[in-house]
Q: What sequence folds into this?
């Protein structure tokens, strides 16, 4: 099962669609990727920093966009999850 399939229920459908659009437009620039850590820049209104870190039983995510700060999982994180898949 893909990472996106496992996590889709945690993302609003509109956030998923906007993140997919970013992914398809090649807005994600992977800076570092390993089985446990993924760091990227995602070009939106400006360049946003996204981090995905897997630790046993838990995936920690972070983005420096205002939406993530106020609402949680954002389109930039979803675009990175799609890229990681």
A:
């Amino acid at each position: 099962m893909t990472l996106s399939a496992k996590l889709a229920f945690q993302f609003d459908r509109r956030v998923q669609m906007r993140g997919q659009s970013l992914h398809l437009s090649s807005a994600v620039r992977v800076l570092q990727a390993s089985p446990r850590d993924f760091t990227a820049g995602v070009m939106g209104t400006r360049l946003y920093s996204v981090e995905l870190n897997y630790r046993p039983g838990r995936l920690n995510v972070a983005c420096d966009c205002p939406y993530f700060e106020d609402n949680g999982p954002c389109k930039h994180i979803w675009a990175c999850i799609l890229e990681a898949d």
Remarks:
- Strands lie at 28-33, 37-43, 47-55, 58-63.
- The mean pLDDT is 96.
- The two ends are 10 Å apart (CA to CA).
